[in-house]
Amino acid sequence: MNLSILIPLLNEEESLKELYTWIIKVMQENNYSYEIIFLDDGSTDDSWSIIESFAQENTAVKGVRFMKNFGKSQALHAGFAKAQGDVIITMDADLQDSPEEIPGLYEMIVKGKYDLVSGWKKKRYDSVVAKNLPSKLFNWAARKTSGVELNDFNCGLKAYKNIVVKNIEVSGEMHRYIPVLAKNAGFGKIGEKVVQHQARKYGETKFGMERFVNGFLDLITIWFLSRFGKRPMHLFGAIGSLMFIIGFIVAGFIGVAKLYHMYNDMRYTLVTNNPWFYIALTSMVLGTQLFLAGFLGEIILRTKNNEERYKVSSEVNFL
Known about the structure:
This protein is an alpha/beta fold. It is built from ten helices and eight strands.
């Protein structure tokens, strides 16, 4: 099978029929063998009924429905597990991603030998203040922090080799950083393609300004995980040990200085009256806590990840 097209969605009943018709047209024009997997992230409108109608008329259409809204990352995680195509295409259901871009993305993976190709909506039709400027700042920070040179991390239109999606795990809200996850997994050939951005035709965006705040927090998380995720003791243990040693040396110096003054009948002050004593004590306490944090992190890595996963309520056309 040439293509698996994954479409995560939440309450997009107005756009689904137009999107489906458009994708089928592109598939037929290029003679692709394909599957379309709709990932209904707990929609409360008629989205699932529409997906079921597509599946009845076309066996290449498949659907997964979550019992509630688990988030886009969980939807993509479910889709990656189900996808069977040689090339995986992800795109949003709001018609802002054009299916006409699929052949170009497919060619870059197959002929260009890229592991992953991310879309770049160079010309956007969003609000400059509400989305464009925060997005540029966010993407700049993501490039500098991750080392992945992409201009648009947030673009939902991406293409992957099948082996890539089978070797990464998307959790939390890490869908923005799938290219970084792929790089950390050893897939280094990551490309970018300028794609057409279309103004939203139906409904309203499901993401507000809080996504940029969450995005920056997730960026810090993925930076830490990429560098110290498998060895937290190397960070916390090193900083903790250094702080403890510095505090211990300062406290020792204060104690020795007092004993020296006492032995030589010189004037001295009580250790508890010396502010450096409390600084040293605080440094040792914090150092011990950081060391323990690293130690506990190492233990947690050896336990099972109990993060809540999506729960599926319905599926169509999967064997």
